[in-house]
Amino acid sequence: MDWLLVPVGVLLIFVGVVDVFFTVLHYDGFGFLSSRLYHRLYDLVRFVTRPLPRKYRALGLSTAAPLMVPVTIVVWILLVSWGYALVYYAGMVNGDFSLSVGPLDPSFMESLYFSGITISTLGLGDITPTSAFFQVIAVSEALTGFGILTLAITYVLGIYGIFQQLGVLSAGLYHQAQDTSDPLSILTPHFPDGQHRGLETHMMQLHRGIVEIYEGIRRYPIVYYYHSRRAYRSLPYTFRMIGGMAGALRWGLPTHHPGSRTPWLSTLIAGLENVEAYLEDRFLSEILEDAPEPVPYETFQAALERDKEPTDPWLDGFLRINAFMHDLARLKDDPDPEEAYERYNEWLPFAHRNRTFYEALARDLGYELDELEGGPGELIF
Length: 381
Description:
By secondary structure, this protein is mostly helical. It folds into 2 domains: 2-153, no CATH class; 177-373, no CATH class. The protein is built from 13 helices and 2 strands. Helix 4 (64-93) runs antiparallel to helix 6 and helix 6 packs antiparallel against helix 7 (199-219). The longest helix has 45 residues, at 132-176. The chain starts with a helix and ends in an 8-residue tail after the last helix. The mean pLDDT is 91.
């Protein structure tokens, strides 16, 4: 069976090197091994920490993403070094290696030892390849090991660059909100005396932040599993605040109002929906439910004009948004029921998807909803 050693070793080397290439160097960052390793490791940490009190469970989850980095690098090095060790062992059996202190007793541990000192470029010189072929193989392993460690440093720097971008975006939302638990409060400073100010720039900046996070997660999937001590520095909080604010601005004002027609607003909403669809397809473990049917027009009109308490929670949510934006923009005329009903029909699918996505994302990443809605600035652990 010694003839199997070389092809198996070459296969292991190939798997390790190709996964490094697709994970670190490829633009789309879809390492077939590393991405599965991230998911399995996070599931393991989540399973182990599930019975713990909330404080210690959050602490455990926060270590998952940092652990993924060294574990992935170690797996790459092990695959390559074990692959080379199998190739070296075949050479040792055939007498292509010598030991400086005496005769070499071929064994897999000896070949693994030689592979380890070669990939780490230690080169102790106690075991030496005597044939040109294995000398070339040893040089190739040293270069491969140096390349992996260099690319690993690049990978780490890229990951923490995306973490920083997420932190800047989420902290900006947290600081802008008058009420850190209410997405609508982000809009308050942009309507002094009822006149909208700076919305275009604000929407453009938020869209850019969302796109940067999307590109970062697509390039470095490990970023998705990041878990912070502060709930506001998280993906669920970011999507909740941006989605709630964008939905209120787009559909909480009358259709003809210039604030709801800010050009970058539609771009932000489209970007938000695309990113949510990508994360749902790539990461979420549950399928999001469809939006409920809108209430009949008569029910909507009665709740809008007669201040009748609605039994439908989504209708109640829209009416609160409509009233908030009406007061914020200091509109004098009462909303037209038919026009408001059209806005409600357009708002409902967006708001429902944003809400269900946010809740599923929070559950998937181990956050409690009250942490994200009650006091997201407080330390979880």
